[in-house]
Write the structure tokens for this entry.
Amino acid sequence: MTRLSLTQNLEVDIAIIGAGYSGLWTAYYLKQQAPNLKIAILEANQVGFGASGRNGGWLMGSVEGEHHLLRSLSPSDKPRAHACIHGIVDEAKRVFDKEQIDCDFAHGGWLSVAARYPEQLPIVRNQLQQLHAEGHSEHDYCWLDHSDMQSRVNIHNTYGGIFSPHAARIHPAKLVNGLAKAVERLGVSIYEHTTVTKLLPPNGKSGQLVTPKGVVQADIILPCVEGFSYELEHLRRYILPIQSLIVATEPLSDSQWQDIGMRNHELVNDACRLVTYAQRTADNRLVFGSRGTYQFGGKPKSTFQDNQQVFATIATLMKEFFPMLGNTPVTHCWGGTLGMPRVKQPHALFDTRTGIGSIGGYAGEGVGASNLMARTLADLILNKDTELTQMPWAHHNTLEKTLRRWEPEPFRWLAYKSILSTFSREESILSDPDSAPWKRKMIHRAAGLASRVL
């Protein structure tokens, strides 16, 4: 579906920059509570052009950096925050049903598996121990031993792992396009191929978004661009663009899926520090993602033809997970630019003085987190005192006073290269059963230090 670009001046109550999950969910919840608001979304390319249309399809009832995000809460207050976070999947499903959004939703839960080499086992056990220490129950996260885990997913050398019901599979492009149609039915205008070249904040009066063919005046301006924050100069140092890379096989046979598992469409990852994630699609492909790239200077990226070697490495890793794939061809490769905050935790902020608000900082878990942050931002904008606005991810403040800035180049690029090199070296040594014990111990310790730095 092609939408018109902006060709004339426009006056609205709220102008949103970016037609991805963040902008669309925010518009949806604002219109649900205040139907008379006039809202326009300006998209530089097309709906879902960024990570919203190009991710691995994990809708999670969790947020990255949850431990640090909630540490200010008392033990009696944490259960309320956990309930808000775990409720993401059910809330999203409620909207999918109400708005008839067909996005291949399958609520199969999430498996974090210790597999392939024994060093993963203490990592996953410590992860579960920390989750329980934070107040999560056995219902939220439970241990599956070797046989129970292998009956669900047959990764090479499975040792056991964690199961959580708080996750679901979706088709990213179907979701983002379904959301766009839903907000348009509510009266929101979406202008594609409309680049914002300048942002003049409201500061007590109507602000302006300058585009090539028209100026948008708005009382409230919401940049919801995540990984494409680089395009807006005042956001550039707060959210770093990172590219996530993914491959997909041809549709697998029933016998192949019997060998692999994932019968309930569980989402799957292991404890590899390179970050792995897999899902079984509605048309029976195996989608597998890992690693990532970063461009010097933090520029976002939307074409990935020059990443064929990385895609090949990811495909090799996928077949290390699932040797039963044999020579099954990879038919699709793609990537998307996501946003990485300096401190891994999401935010929803609105400054009543300037009329500027924003959500983001998902660190790769934006499919679900964007829903929760959008609901929070809508309540902040509408000046509602709700459970969400009392949470530590809600801020009545500016981006500059809320988020930590990234270090300047070349420090970011050098750090990225060094950490990725360490993680890759760890993966290479630990995956080799014949590697010397002293090498395994040394690289595992080095990678642990690099992970803490990251």
Summary: The chain has 13 helices and 19 strands. The chain has a mean pLDDT of 93. The radius of gyration is 22 Å.
